[in-house]
User: What shape does this take?
Amino acid sequence: MANDDRYVIALQVCDEGRIDTVGGKSAGLGRMMRAGVPVPAGFAISSEAYTSMLSSGDVAAEVSTLAASVDPIDVEGLEATSRKIREIIERAPIPAEVETSVRHAYAELCMAAAASDSHLPVAVRSSATAEDLPEASFAGQQDTFLWVVGADDLLDHVRRCWSSLYTGRAMAYRLENGFGHDRVRMSVCVQKMVDARAAGVMFTLNPINGDRSKVAIDASWGLGEAVASGEVTPDNYLVDKVTLDVVRRTISSKAIEYRPVPAERRVERVAVGPERREAPCISDEELIVLAVHAKAIEAEAGAPQDLEWAIEAGGDPPANVVLLQTRPETVWSGRDRATVTEGGRSAMDNIVANLITGVRIRAAPPRPDTPESASSPAQGE
Amino acid sequence: MAETRFPSPFEVPTPEGCEGWEELYPYYYLFSEERREFEDSKFWFFDGMHHPEVLYPFDTITSESWWVALGEMNSRVYIVPPALGIDQRVLNGRLYISANAIMDEEVVGARVAHFMDRAGYYYEHWDELFEKWKTKATETVEELKAIEVPALPEMEALDTVRSGRGITSAYDLLTAYNRVIENMHKIWHLHFEFLNLGYAAYLTYFGLCKQLFPDIADQTVAQMVAGIDVLLFRPDEELKKLARKAVELDVAHVFESRDDPEKVITALEGTDAGRRWIAELEKARDPWFYFSTGSGFYHHHKTWINDLTFPFEGIADYISRIQAGEEISRPMEQVQAERDRLAAEYSALLEGDDLKSFQEHLGLARTVFPFIEDHNFYVEHWHHAVFWNKMREFGQIFVDAGFFDEVDDMFYLHRYEVQSALYDLIASWGVGTPARGPGYWPKEVARRKELFDRLSQWSPVPALGEPPEVVTEPFTIMLWGITTDSIQNWLGLGADDGETDVALKGFAASPGTVEGRARVITNADQLGEILDGEILVCPITNPSWGPVFSKIGAAVTDIGGMMSHASIVCREYGVPAVVGTGFGTKSITTGQMLRVDGSAGTVAVLD
Assistant: This one.
């Protein structure tokens, strides 16, 4: 992407240094690209664009006044105010410079993807930013729009992403945690849409026991939304990072999937046919490609990661495997690493203990409570 | 309907026509009314791993030797905290064993300090003590070789008189026998000097890996210790060397006919190059051909030193591989590089105490591993090959005196009976009157042979008595690979995994999935039948089967764990293996199409 200006920034140059303007989501995508991991092409619309929109006319003042009147206890009032604020933002004119940059960037994306008539379907995801708030403060609070086609449609959805900063839930969250509404701004991530045969999430450790030698992969048919939203029990796989063997696999009955309806520019939730329902949705080869990417991203990030991925329909591994998001894993990374061995125990102590307890049948050491599968909390709803 | 317990040893019927089988074995080796309460309270399992066949009365010397030696090292030497010995009984000619665990926690606790002191000393001085062990073991074999088995002469040598010796060939014969028997006991003490400690260290490393990396594959844990050059591969390496030499000396064509070894030797003796090759063979023979094609536990297991058929077939196989341009060397460098990569990458995932423990135990596992493998060559192969031949010298004396029709008839007698027969013989020699033996033993041996054949028809029950809820006794797990799961499987209580085409489950011993035709081998003599790419299905593999592993597509064994020979060799050759399936040789027939998944530990019959 040639243009890299105040409002539009190519994903491959998004990094931690720009997190205040592009948000964690885009910074993570940039990091994955630099780690050599395939990520669908795209660009970030910076929070400067959002600020620029707010500064036009009275938008900022109106939003600010309305937001200040909110009482988080009053759920109905909160939702009514949210609707009003979102309407103001969605109706505000997009500053001309922003619009030009976005249209230009979208056209380039279409061209790069060789999409005819500038109608490349894209995913539009909000990526909130704040100067000194932890990234986790925004998790699961913003919107994702799939299968957006054409520049006009894209601009509409950019507005909707912006306004999602003022959902009732997001406002209540900020109030409860004492963050000023105006400290948070919104960046938007635009990426070429992947028509996924299968998609899911993965952790660069086993979320059941914190074992860092494994990549835990949850996978289901169709777009990733089914897994992210928890609407299906995904297949669950455990891949050893060192041997790249699939050491465990649990195939589930996957009743529904999300499929794009290109003509209607939307995705639909459909039942999975019986012939595919109980079948693994991902091959061992694809699992291994995913694990290799997961290792590379973790190494680049220097910490365990929580990732979203997709397998492009009609492709073959390794090229059909793409990564859609990376975030720091928070459950195990936040803890002190539990040691299996007790400090100060000699090899002889261990041998005696092993003889006494018996080998192989010993229960796993107690570990903190953890989610039962790799599925991350619902996000992007 | 699945059972929850196995029959009591007192409920197992005597197979038809086998009445009186008990007379073949010493009184202490039998289940009996005097100890019934105790014996009924124990869980016994069939030791098909070491003693798959009916025990020849004489050959119980191997099982009886380890009965004492394994136990004493645990109970009296190293004071292993939770474990005493492994008890043994014979039922319908088969060996059943039972772990003697210490259940009282206080007693276990009181043993810990002694164990730390004693075993700690061995671990600390392992390499140095192992060097000493090699000398002791070698000396023991040399002592055995040096024992002369004198024939009884018509007249003692004049020198007996002139030197004032005062003792005779009768005395020499009797003491020679005693010395050979003592020598056998001695080597078995040495066998267990390190073994239990070695396994304890190895299994601790194994358990630690499982704790640090809960889903790590067994074979990955083993791979990190692999690639250490163990003696057991040496005989096979010698065959490769001889194959290369045959090609180099241009005598390879002599082996093509796959004639009797004798004919091959005769052909080779006819040429200069052939004689040079024979000189190479002679160099390799001692000690590397003192190698059994079985476990070495039985007198009838063939050895290379007695029968060149097997090594010559191996050499012929290797020659054709060399000529086809194949690489016959073990991929040692690859195995070592992979071992180091795995260890480095797993280490990199750890920090602090975990990292320290992992490296300590990996180091210790690598230290003890050579003994775990090498002792087998010294004891079961080298020593036992000499031992059985030495016993045959006594057998020949008996044949000459008319006690037996054939040398090997002697093995139908227990060693105490052999001693009696010897006395019968020397008494008759001394007095000059007929011995009872010639009238007594041929009839008795014939009767025993019949009995023995009938006992061989009996399918041993896998276990006796009530199984423990969980198996914790370390030696049961370490040496026999028997776990709570395997007992459940024997009882038909194995978890139903919904995979209906899975005929068998076992240890995932060497990774990879292969499909091929089954070749069921129950006897080393059948090894020649194996075709390229076939799946070897056998009770247990043996180190001397080396050449077979570069030929087969996969291996499936009835018995064995992660550290059994099949597992180690298959990992080194990159051949998928599932070991310890329990019933592979019974449920699979030669020619069936199989899918062996050495990563999942499953064997599926495809047709």
Observations:
- Chain B has a mean pLDDT of 90.
- The two ends of chain B are 27 Å apart (CA to CA).
- Chain B touches chain A through 52 residues (CB under 8 Å).
- The CA atoms of residues 69 and 189 of chain B lie 5 Å apart.
